[in-house]
Design goal:
By secondary structure, the chain is of the alpha/beta class. The chain has helices spanning 3-11, 27-36, 57-70, 74-90, 112-128, 146-163, 186-194, 210-217, 238-246, 255-260, 272-277, 296-307, 311-320, 329-347, and strands at residues 14-20, 93-100, 134-142, 168-174, 198-203, 223-226, 251-253, 282-284. Strand 4, helix 7 (186-194) and strand 5 form a beta-alpha-beta unit. The structure holds inosinic acid and zinc ion. Inosinic acid is lined by residues 20-23, 64, 100-101, 140, 142, 174-175, 202, 205, 257, 287-288.
């Protein structure tokens, strides 16, 4: 990256809508966790996938297991969440929707409720310190854990949606896409929708999920994570594409994550281009900035250099992301005002 371009992407005000908390832990924070837990014998190479490296999706999920071992107390979660929020802010992210799967850890007494409370505490602390970023939270359902846990997770999210003063805004469906079937999770997702939680679903992350994708698109979700195999050229179908277009469902697109996780062959073949050319709402995101060793500025720059986007086009992309947030209209308007204020400085 040349340094002038670098500065433009860092100065660009950005919206991050697809960031898993434990996938976003930086090397610096991992170092602090390693000091806290030397007995685990975890090495740094086990928690991130460096430049030029690739892993199978299965290997990526092994990495999360290692990080979960390192992050298993309230103190860890508070530190990790605070660090992640401040790192996004330092990268020019003005609005962040963080997502995480509430975990219970018998060994440390951590409960799912305390897990969510601790993430919200971190968000609140950053607010109190005037960190220049608006952070909201999506409670994640790990598809591996089945229908009952999914329903319990929705209940928990609903409780917090009602009591968190607008911090909890929705549900994420994630986890190993090769495990379980979305149809079992439909009742939980439908009930989330009914109570006013927004839905961001990982969809068509791998091929062979056509039936599941079709079912889940009928909800319909409010946003789609990845959507890698929706279009017919890669094994999806025109019907699926039409459902996405008809409902105007924004896509959260994570270039480096998909390249390193080998669900797309290379940056140039990323499905961003397909949807962008259609004029469909596409939001550039990081997915797991720690695990995939990236940040949002870099992802915008990669999209621009790979697909020949002008600076004005990049600006438009980051501005349009505001419309795709789950924030109330008043917050969206504040963000638009902020973008307008910052524009002269970014383009100077
Ligand atoms: P956490 O929910 O904060 O613990 O973040 C890590 C979790 O996010 C993983 O265990 C997965 O369930 C989920 N996750 C992270 N990246 C991906 C992805 O690319 N696809 C599906 N799930 C993911
Ligand atoms: Zn994801």
């Amino acid at each position: 990256m040349d340094s002038e371009a670098d500065a433009f992407y860092r100065e660009l005000p950005k919206v991050e809508l697809h960031a898993h908390l434990n996938g976003s832990v930086s090397v610096q924070t991992i170092e602090k966790l390693l000091v806290r837990k030397p007995h685990l014998n975890v090495e740094r190479s086990m928690t991130a996938i460096g430049k030029g490296q690739r892993r199978t999706l299965d290997e990526c999920f092994q990495v999360f297991k290692v990080i979960h071992q390192l992050v298993d107390t309230e103190e860890d979660i508070l530190m990790v969440a605070t660090d992640v929020i401040k790192e996004f802010a330092a990268d020019g992210v003005k609005y962040l929707e963080l997502r995480s799967t509430p975990r219970e850890e018998k060994n440390t007494g951590l409960t799912k409720k305390r897990y969510v409370e601790t993430v919200l505490k971190a968000i609140q602390q950053c607010r109190n310190e005037d960190v220049d970023i608006d952070v909201r939270f999506l409670v994640a359902i790990d598809r591996r854990n089945g229908a009952q846990v999914a329903m319990e997770t929705v209940k928990l999210a609903e409780e917090f949606m009602l009591s968190s003063d607008g911090l909890v805004v929705g549900i994420d469906l994630s986890g190993d896409p090769t495990v379980g079937h979305g149809k079992d999770l439909l009742p939980a997702l439908q009930s989330a929708k009914n109570c006013g939680l927004k839905l961001s679903l990982h969809l068509s992350e791998v091929l062979s999920q056509l039936e599941e994708t079709d079912l889940l698109l009928d909800l319909p979700p409010d946003r789609i994570g990845h959507g890698t195999f929706l279009h017919p050229e890669v094994g999806g179908s025109e019907d699926l594409v039409q459902k996405v277009l008809k409902n105007n469902i924004p896509l959260e697109l994570c270039l480096t994550s998909n390249v390193k996780g080998q669900t797309v062959p290379c940056y140039a073949k990323h499905h961003f281009n397909h949807w962008y050319q259609l004029g469909h709402p596409c939001v550039i995101c990081t997915d797991d900035k720690g695990v995939f060793a990236t940040d949002l500025s870099q992802e915008y720059q990669l999209a621009a250099s790979t697909f020949g986007l002008s600076r004005e086009a990049v600006w438009k992309l980051s501005h349009q992301a505001i419309d795709c947030t789950f924030a109330p209209d008043a917050v969206k308007q504040q963000l638009r005002n902020k973008w307008a204020e910052l524009k002269p400085q970014v383009f100077q």
